[in-house]
Amino acid sequence: MIRINQLKLPVDHTEEDLLNQAAKLLRIPVKEIQSIKIIKQSVDARKKDEIHFTYSIDAKTQKEETVIHRAKNANVLKTVKKGYHFPKIGYESMKNRPVIIGSGPAGLFCGVMLARNGYRPLILERGESVDKRQKSVESFWNGGEVNPQSNVQFGEGGAGTFSDGKLNTLVKDPFLRSRKVLELFIEFGADPSILYKNKPHIGTDVLSDIVKNMRLEINRLGGEVRFNAQVTDFVIKDGSLSAVKVNDAEEIPADVLVLAVGHSARDTFEVLEQRGFPMEAKPFAVGLRIQHPQEAINLSQYGCKKSKILGAADYKLTHKSSNGRGIYTFCMCPGGYVVNASSEKGRLAINGMSYHDRAGVNANSALIVTVTPEDFGDSSPLSGIAYQRKLEEAAYQCGNGKIPVQLYGDFKKNQQSKSFGSIQPQIKGLYEFSDLRSILPSCLSDSILEGVETFARKINGFNAPDAILAGVESRTSSPVRILRDDNFESHMKGVYPCGEGAGYAGGITSAAMDGLKVAEAIASRYHKF
Fold this sequence. Notes:
By secondary structure, the protein is α/β, with parallel strands linked by helices. It has helices at residues 15-26, 64-71, 105-116, 130-141, 177-187, 204-220, 266-274, 294-302, 383-398, 408-413, 442-455, 508-525, and strands spanning 2-10, 33-44, 52-61, 76-78, 99-101, 122-124, 224-226, 231-237, 240-246, 250-253, 257-259, 279-281, 284-293, 318-320, 326-333, 337-340, 350-353, 362-371, 403-407, 427-428, 431-433, 468-473, 480-482, 495-497.
């Protein structure tokens, strides 16, 4: 195959235009191109009057070496097709089928790979199936009580189910696990374009169907997914796992266990610490979420308020504040909603969410500031959890149990808002005007103010006085790392910490990739159950 990089075309181009441009760069007639395949597509919007797509494509021709030599172009080169390979099955005996705790991306992708290789995994999920979970979450957003076991954080699909469903990752990937993850997403219902779009996303509505289809595949292959099944204790004998307890009642034998519990499984982290699992506190980031009109973001990024081809524009902004802390935008949701993502009574946390079409009138993004174990107040492994809870309790009190909101102009003046301006909120859950500065330490509020003013130099209107802030964004990543060795195993033999909750991922794709890594580690060691 011949790889062509930096192939540029107007955003309104046709498939024929793509083929013609490829032939032009290869210096051959169009008819000599047997096939082309898009490898990557990105938008170049640096010049608003000349926005274009930039492609990397693979073309198949006769006499490819001759074609490459004749093209005399550094962007035309030979490429060899590579693929993901699951390891050969190991020889060590497995007394019981592998158990996976959690059905988020890490647990599901680990489960699918193990199921497809004959291991018949048992997945234990504390929350509900996605259909029941959606009803519980909608009830909560409409003013009902939070269900501590099934909410935006817990349940089938994990926290990513109620998000934008972004699939980009910065993880280095020489083994092509990222592509395998995308291929599996497509197999279970995602649009094939996620394989080549520079910033692929699925959307909460499509993701809900995908996780259900993955569960059905695991069941079809002899595995099992149980809901409302919280692992409440671990039975350790001579430094090795022998069983897990479910709902403080049932004891399930387990000598191979995948800990894919998610970043909000605070009660599970407490039990793990009590049972002597090596853990440590890790840095993460906290802050607020900001809403702007999506048309304003489109205008700033694309030079027009709407584009059917380009869709809703996004952004990613970073700044190092004068106090030394990094502030950056996180989980930007074009055409999305701010959602109440609480999972504990008396504590309030928020997140962002988009549907597949990203058709909401507002864009929102987290404005988060880095915090480290030095900020947490003590050196215990769970000190970051205590830090999160303190912020979430303050947010709950600040908003009287509702999402606390404040206009940016009032946040800047340190005064409470009384009414919205031209921007109307797009929020899932009840909300109330509050004083957001009362939630955060002053060093974080100061960093956010400095960041917003700096970001306004890149995004027109980012510091609009009526931009809507909401808080608190506290679940950006796990505050804990469960230590594991080079074989992905904990000091407690038979236990494999996995995914974002264990401290080894930072989003849907990287968590799914870590699920693949752990499945590979188990398969290369143990033969089929």
